[in-house]
Design goal:
The protein is mostly helical. Helices cover 51% and strands 0% of the residues. The protein has 2 helices and no strands.
Length: 59
């Protein structure tokens, strides 16, 4: 499983905590036998957790 370790996977407005969790997931995937499907499912769950920040600040 090949995952880059640069910032190209993130949008400029991605939350720093989201970026950290994704990077930790990449480390976990690198150090284990995680499949691409498992990685994508976990990444999707992480991104969903932080999706509320993109809704705007007018609450």
């Amino acid at each position: 499983m090949v995952h880059s370790d640069d910032q190209s996977d993130f949008a400029p407005d991605d939350d720093l905590l989201l970026q950290q969790e994704i990077m930790l997931l990449k480390i976990k995937a690198y150090n284990s036998s995680m499949t691409d499907e498992e990685f994508q499912l976990e990444e999707k769950a992480i991104r969903k957790k932080y999706a509320y920040k993109h809704l705007g600040d007018d609450f």
